[in-house]
Design brief:
27% strand; HSP70_peptide-bd_sf; 102 residues; HSP70_C_sf; elongated; alpha+beta; 3-stranded antiparallel sheet; single chain
Length: 102
């Protein structure tokens, strides 16, 4: 894993251009069945944010599904179920693609 810096600008020296981001990037390579060497990069920070978002969405989905089961419906009042569902809507709507890019 390497620390990569990304600059914007056309000047000869990097220090004279605008720093856009610093990110930890994994550089990977692989040889496919045709013997072609492929390179790609993985941004660790973005990957962690996406994984966290998926975990939150899975948790919200599992909670909603549990609340809809018959044995759970019998144990909770409608007001309690609504309170839990309202709380689950907030976190999942707060994760947008824009917030993942930060």
């Amino acid at each position: 894993m390497e620390l990569s810096t990304i600059y914007q600008g056309e000047r000869m020296l990097a220090k004279d251009n605008r720093l856009l981001a610093k990110s930890k990037i994994n550089f990977c390579s692989d040889i496919d069945a045709n013997g072609i060497l492929n390179y790609w990069a993985e941004d660790e920070e973005l990957k962690n944010k996406i994984d966290a978002r998926r975990a939150l969405e899975n948790y919200a989905y599992d909670t909603k599904r549990t609340l809809e089961e018959d044995k759970t419906k019998a144990k909770l009042r409608d007001a309690e179920k609504k309170k839990v569902l309202d709380a689950m809507i907030r976190p999942s709507s707060g994760c947008t693609r824009t917030s993942l890019r930060r």
